[in-house]
Amino acid sequence: MDKTYKVSVNGQFDFTFTKEEIEALDARQLNKTHFHLLQKNRSFKADIFKSDFLHRHYEIKINSGIYRVKINNELDQLIDEMGLSLGSAQQINDIKAPMPGLILEVSVEEGTEVKEGDYLLVLEAMKMENTLTAPRDGVVKSVSVSKGDTVDKNQLLIEME
C-alpha cells in the first residue's frame, strides 16, 4: 500500500497525496523556510512562517495568499478511522507536587469551577514560589492540602472531575 497523506487547507479543502506524488513535486528549498515550486509550468514562491511540527500545523504564504495547512500521516488517519483521539486519552485529573515544598496559598476549594490556566495554588520550593495552574477546564473534586502544609514530590494536591 502506498503511503498517503491527507492535507486540509484552511479547514475547507481536503487533498490526498501519495509519497510518490510528493517526491515528484518540482520544489527547491531556498533556505530554512523559503521554497520555489513549479507546477504545470507555473512558478510559485512559498514561505512557511508558522509551523507546529508536533501537531503538523503550518501557515504558508504562497505568492500573496496565506493558507493554514494540517497534514495527517498514516497513523493520524488510522486513529481517526478507529474513532480515537490522542488528546482525550491524556486528560489530567490529578495535580501532584512537582517537587517537595511548602504550600503558601490555596486558591480553590472543592466544587470550584476552573478554566485551563487558572491559578490553583502556590508551592514554595528551593526559595522560589511556583504557581500551579489548571491543566484543563473542569471542577475541583477535592483539595488534599492547605496553606502551611509541607508536601513531598508527587504527593496528590488537587483532584479534578
Automatic annotation (TrEMBL):
Residues 79-161 form the Lipoyl-binding domain. InterPro entries: Biotin_BS (IPR001882), Biotin_Carboxyl_Carrier/Decarb (IPR050709), Biotin_lipoyl (IPR000089), Single_hybrid_motif (IPR011053). Keywords: Biotin. This is Acetyl-CoA carboxylase biotin carboxyl carrier protein subunit. It comes from Christiangramia fulva.
